[in-house]
Amino acid sequence: MDNVITRALTNLGHRVTSRIRRLGFASRFFAMTLVYSGTALKRFNLTIREIYFTGVLSLIIILVSGLFVGMVLGLQGYDTLQRYGSSEALGILVALSLVRELGPVVAALLFASRAGSAITAEIGLMKATEQLSAMEMMAVNPIARVVAPRFWAGIISMPLLAALFSAMGIFGGYLVGVQLIGVDEGSFWSQMQASVDFREDIVNGVIKSFVFGVVVTWIAVFEGYDSEPTAEGVSGATTRTVVTSSLAILAADFVLTAFMFRGV
Amino acid sequence: MNRAALDLWVGFFVAIGLASLLFLALKVGNLASSSTGETYRLMAEFDNIGGLKVRAPVKSAGVVVGRVSEIRFDQESYRAVVSMQLDQRYKFPRDTILTINTSGLLGEQYIGFEVGGDTAVLKDGEKVKKTQSAVVLEKLISQFMFNKAAEDGGKK
């Protein structure tokens, strides 16, 4: 009996300390990535190659989902707004919800599952096939050569993808609201322009997507670098990337929103 | 994939990304319309500003001529002091009356300028004398209810 309780407590303690140790390693890894970023920025074609894989290849999913999210917003928003006789405010609703929240958050969630998982799987497989160790043998720092370019590519891609998502969503809302339902085109755009503020809404949205870019790529490269060098370990790491970064995006979004839009 | 094609795709991606940011800033946001041109400051005291917020529009004849820049409480007079930034192009007579209006039944509140006939115009930093407070809907309703009750009481 006594034995069972001690074992359970030891187990619990071990799990807690190992989580904390992982977090510590993750922070150290983040700092190391920043320190060894020189190569990624000096040999920028390394980063450009990664922007192709993380950014350009995510374009289709971002554009198509942005369009559909905007179209759904147009339909749902119109349905609710016309009850209060203010269907002209559809432009405001679509633009503000996309620029402030949906654009950065949904784009980041898609980015985490499209690009983040790929980064983790790639780095994890490199580790499993001992390519990272081979680089170290050749006195090439794997963090500088493999991790940092992916990290910077993610940070550069994410705000652009979020902006594309928002723009595409607003276009989708315009298609449904103005072209399909017949909200007045002039008031759709002018009301939108009157209430979307450049500094308050658009810049804050870009800041959000930048932070999400840092969070997602950090988690993705770390999980890949820290994965067990087995097939099972890589698959587990890929799953953890998607789960952890999705939760981190939503949590970070709450914190950022609390700072940015307090309704003052 | 060779480097030229890679550069082309990444360049394309960055270009449309920046283009969409520009679209957001100019077409969706108010960067184009919010002229960062010359403004001048006016102040006004109100008994009650209702739900007026900083950055609320200042309108004359329905046209936005400026924005509310600051709202604070005056400890001496127990009134609200509202500062506004007005477009330099527009001048208003000194006997202009400021009212706090609501656009629509549930819309946002704004300051309306009811232009007077004075030939002297308001200058930078000047305080507008004549103001009218916001209409507080609850007060109106309670007044209406009291009147109604008084009427009904009189009939009996």
Q: If you had to describe this structure to a student in words, what would you say it looks like?
A:
- The complex is a heterodimer of chains A (264) and B (156).
- Chain A is an all-alpha fold and 264 residues long.
- Chain A has helices at 2-35, 37-42, 44-54, 59-81, 90-128, 131-137, 142-181, 185-195, 198-226, 231-260.
- Chain B has two domains: 1-34; 39-141, no CATH class.
- Chain B contains two helices and eight strands.
- In chain B, a hairpin with a 4-residue loop joins strand 3 and strand 4 (79-87).
- Classes of the chains: A mainly alpha (264), B alpha/beta (156).
- Chains A and B meet through helix 3, helix 7, helix 8 and helix 9 of A and helix 1 of B.
Defining key terms:
heterodimer; A: 264 residues; mainly alpha; 10 helices; globular; B: 156 residues; alpha/beta; 2 domains; 8-stranded mixed beta sheet; 2 helices; 8 strands; 29% helix; elongated
Structural class computed from helices and strand pairing of chain A: mainly alpha
Poorly predicted regions of chain A: none
Number of domains of chain B: 2
Give the proportion of residues in helices of chain B. 25-40%
Gyration radius from CA atoms of chain B, angstroms:
24 Å
Count of runs of 4 or more consecutive helical residues of chain B: 2
Terminus-to-terminus distance of chain A: 58 Å
Summarize it.
With 264 residues, chain A is mainly α. In chain A, 87% of the residues lie in helices and 0% in strands.
Helices, strands, pairings?
The complex is a heterodimer of chains A (264) and B (156).
Chain A: H1 2-35, H2 37-42, H3 44-54, H4 59-81, H5 90-128, H6 131-137, H7 142-181, H8 185-195, H9 198-226, H10 231-260
Chain B: H1 3-28, E1 39-46, E2 57-60, E3 63-74, E4 79-87, E5 97-102, E6 109-114, E7 126-128, E8 131-132, H2 137-155
Parallel strand pairs in B: 1-7, 2-6, 5-8
Antiparallel strand pairs in B: 1-4, 2-3, 3-4, 5-6
